[in-house]
Amino acid sequence: MFSASGNYQNCFRLNCGLLWSPKIDMAMKTLGELIANQDSDKTRLRPLFFA
């Protein structure tokens, strides 16, 4: 997420306009597991900037 004040540095925004399906359900579970297994002291995600 973007904030001109620097807020939300540790936030992740996910938007999805697809109908829910077993495939999307499995992908969301995988994403949750990946996020839960991060070592926050060693892993720092850097923001992506798109032109």
Structural notes for this entry:
The protein has 51 residues and is mainly α. The protein has a domain at 15-39. It contains one helix and no strands. The radius of gyration is 14 Å and the shape is flat. 0% of the residues are buried. The mean pLDDT is 78.
The shape, in one word, is: flat
Distance between the termini: 15 Å
Run of helices and strands: H
Q: Which range best describes the helical content: under 10%, 10-25%, 25-40%, 40-55%, 55-70% or over 70%?
A: 25-40%
Protein name: Putative transcriptional regulator, GntR family
Give a brief outline of the structure.
By secondary structure, this protein is mostly helical. The protein has one helix at 22-36.
Annotate the secondary structure layout.
Blueprint: H1 22-36
Task: Label this structure with key terms.
mainly alpha; 51 residues; 1 helix; Putative transcriptional regulator, GntR family
